[in-house]
Amino acid sequence: MKAITWIAMIIVTLVMLMGGVMKLTGNEMAMASFAVLGLPALFGTFIGICEIAGALGIWYRPTSRYAAMGIAAIMLGAVYYHVVHTPIT
Predict the structure, then answer these.
(1) Torsional sign, CA 66, 46, 74, 2
(2) What DSSP line would sit under the chain, residue for residue?
(3) Distance of alpha carbon 65 from alpha carbon 45, whole angstroms
(4) 64 CB burial (10 A radius; 0-12, 13-18, 19+)
(5) Region 63-79: what's the mean pLDDT?
(6) What is the pTM of this model?
(7) Mean pLDDT in the chain?
(8) What does residue 40 show for φ and ψ, rounded to 5 degrees?
(9) In the prediction, which pLDDT does 14 show?
(10) Helices 64-85 and 41-57: crossing angle, nearest 10°?
(11) Is the pLDDT of residue 89 over 80?
């Protein structure tokens, strides 16, 4: 069971770091969803910082619970965006 937890944490860390770096570098594809929602680019930068902080925070025991809750909130927002604004074809 411990190995599954480690693997899950590694996958989440890599995905969050990748997404956060893409947002911080201003990647058009990563920032497009914020424009669709009518949010400023600065919000995309904020989310990128939060993604990186969450990815690193889940490895530090005192902050891992809060980091996981932050990642969950970001992912709920992403799910909302895709359900409402991405057509299913």
Answers:
(1) negative
(2) -HHHHHHHHHHHHHHHHHHHHHHHTT-HHHHHHHHHTT--HHHHHHHHHHHHHHHHHTTSGGGHHHHHHHHHHHHHHHHHHHHHHS---
(3) 23
(4) middle
(5) 94
(6) 0.86
(7) 91
(8) -70, 160
(9) 97
(10) 140
(11) no
Q: Taking a C-beta distance cutoff of 8 angstroms, is the pair 71, 54 a contact?
A: yes
**Total residues belonging to the chain:** 89
Q: Tell me whether residue 10 is exposed, middle or buried, using C-beta atoms within 10 angstroms of its C-beta: 0 to 12, 13 to 18, 19 or more.
A: exposed
Count CB neighbours of 19 within 10 A: 19
Convert the pLDDT of each residue in 2-49 to its tens digit: 999 999 999 999 999 999 999 999 899 888 888 888 889 899 999 999
